[in-house]
């Protein structure tokens, strides 16, 4: 069936490509890729040769219009460099325009670093907010974190090694010293998940920025406040704390 196929690719281990994803890539007329060089490696691993074109949400409107036009009669596959397209990656405008034009749109689910990190973290997984990348600048970062402080949810952030310690410190300052996890290199040779409080983790990474790709998972606010959030209980806890 012609249309737009959103295909998740591995976030490390190439064995994580699904059978259906491989078959769909093989049958594609065109692959719209975030970086065609990165996707070329995946195609070569699968022994495939398929025409590719670069796609970003900031690509020219005409690029998107041409892709949507081709979806009328051809199989157009959207991939990003790793994981699920659209998740801190390009694609939503292409999906929006394909839908507006009445094209067939379908998705082939697969690896996503945020979901994988939650499963590794041991933190509550019933309710979470995916917050993507924090802003670089300290003020904007603190303002963004402040928006999340009242949520009784686990929070998930994408991060890079050099910025990790600063991000953990800012999270501790804005959210309180919550339980957290730093998941690194998921599904790769040096996969690691380190758990602790935000301040412990910030101290651990302060002088030793880790290599590789990182997800920070932060637990919800402490049980005492989260689960018995009536004013009288909080008042009593505050009075007790002040009496110490
Ligand atoms: N679309 C991707 C997904 O589904 O997870 C995410 C793309 S985003 C541009 C890249 C970020 O995802 C990295 O900076 C890192 O925070 C996270 N990431 C990707 N692969 C990872 C891995 N194998 N281990 C840990 N984090 C990873």
UniProtKB/TrEMBL annotation:
Its main location: cytoplasm. It is an enzyme of class 2 (transferase). It is found in: Cytoplasm. The keyword Amino-acid biosynthesis does not apply. Residues 4-202 form the Tetrapyrrole methylase domain. It holds the Pfam family RsmI_C. It catalyses: cytidine(1402) in 16S rRNA + S-adenosyl-L-methionine = 2'-O-methylcytidine(1402) in 16S rRNA + S-adenosyl-L-homocysteine + H(+). Catalyzes the 2'-O-methylation of the ribose of cytidine 1402 (C1402) in 16S rRNA. Belongs to the methyltransferase superfamily. RsmI family. This is Ribosomal RNA small subunit methyltransferase I. It comes from Sphingopyxis lindanitolerans. The gene is rsmI.
């Amino acid at each position: 069936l012609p249309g737009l196929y959103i295909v998740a690719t591995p976030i490390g281990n190439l064995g994580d490509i699904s059978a259906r994803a491989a078959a769909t890539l093989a049958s594609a007329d065109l692959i719209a890729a975030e970086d065609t060089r990165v996707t070329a490696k995946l195609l070569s691993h699968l022994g495939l040769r398929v025409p590719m074109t670069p796609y970003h949400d900031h690509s020219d409107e005409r690029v998107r219009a041409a892709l949507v036009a081709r979806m009328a009669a051809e199989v157009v596959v959207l991939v990003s460099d790793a994981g699920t397209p659209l998740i801190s990656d390009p694609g939503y405008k292409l999906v929006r325009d394909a839908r507006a034009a009445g094209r067939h749109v379908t998705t082939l689910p697969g690896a996503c670093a945020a979901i994988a990190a939650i499963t590794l973290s041991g933190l509550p997984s019933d309710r979470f907010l995916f917050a993507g990348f924090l802003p670089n600048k300290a003020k904007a970062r603190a303002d963004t974190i402040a928006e999340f402080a009242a949520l009784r949810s686990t929070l998930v952030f994408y991060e890079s090694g050099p910025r990790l310690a600063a991000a953990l410190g800012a999270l501790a300052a804005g959210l309180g010293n919550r339980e957290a996890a730093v998941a690194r290199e998921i599904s790769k040779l040096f996969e690691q998940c380190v758990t602790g409080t935000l301040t412990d983790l910030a101290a651990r990474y302060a002088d030793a920025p880790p290599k590789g790709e990182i997800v920070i998972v932060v637990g919800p606010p402490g049980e005492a406040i989260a689960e018995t959030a009536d004013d009288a209980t909080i008042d009593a806890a505050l009075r007790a704390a002040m009496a110490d």
